[in-house]
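Peptidase A1 domain-containing protein (Brassica napus), 319 aa
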Amino acid sequence: MSQAIMRIPLKTKTLWNKDDVSLTNDNDNTYFGQIMVGTPGQPFNVLFDTGSFDLWVPSAIWPKQKSRRYRSSASKTFKRNGTKKEIRYGSATMREKAFIEATEAPGRRIYERPWDGIFGLSGLSKSTITGARPIWRTMMDEGVVTKKVFSIWLRRYSDSGENGGEIIFGGIDQEHFTGAHTYVDAEGPHNTFKINSFFVGKIDTKVCSKGCKVLVDSGSTYIRGPPNLIVKINKQIRIAADCSNYDKLSEVISFTIAAKTFTLTPRDYIERKNGKCKSVFADAKSDLWQLGTPFIRAFHTVWDYQTPGIVKVGFAKSK
């Protein structure tokens, strides 16, 4: 198999549909791209998720109406192993067979999403959930990509139309960012590192003054952290729910990664939707912080596996 750089354009749409017509998204709710599964390939729109390990798509008995479903009988390369596992995404538990066929999800939240499945981007040698080798690890091990690097660039839908962003396996597009990337060594199954010292304008929130563990999570629509710390940040932001003070917001939110200061403007940290405003800083279920799509929109992000045994995550200002 020859080496290559693979580009996957990402689309942006809202989280609901009406009569199968996707509504325009001006709030950057979700990003997804198309992959092919099986032989011959069956198309699925998947959310590329740096916060999870496995690839799953709906099986033939997936309960969502009018959903794409994987037809195993139509694939020449399908092999069933019959193992059942549970995959957790946030507060939800996904029951699926260890290959790629998801059979059900609790509640309705996942069924309401515009994408079909999730493509976990872990670089582990095997999933801690299913025991399968993650797709990105397979791509690296089998020399499919030119370089052991992937990068994500996200653009606001209001600026870009259907061209909402791009994920590149095997390289970096210089047109997607300005300046040089700041890299930090990551560790553990989720490629975590530390952030320090949150400021709102010139006010020190005292959040992460001694460092907080964080991951970059392309599957999250928010920047999440422990509730007792998030409340301190939002107390300083003080955005009105009716957006009446949005145009008066001038303070940037800043924090440091690898001794470099990163700043978010109100356009980055305030979500505006149907005349309502709210902060993108939201509660997490654990002490682990998650830098979701609001951060990735602001900073082009690279995951670099080129040095054996070391993963580096890099950030540069997005264009």
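The mean pLDDT is 79. The chain is about 10% helix and 40% strand. ok done for today
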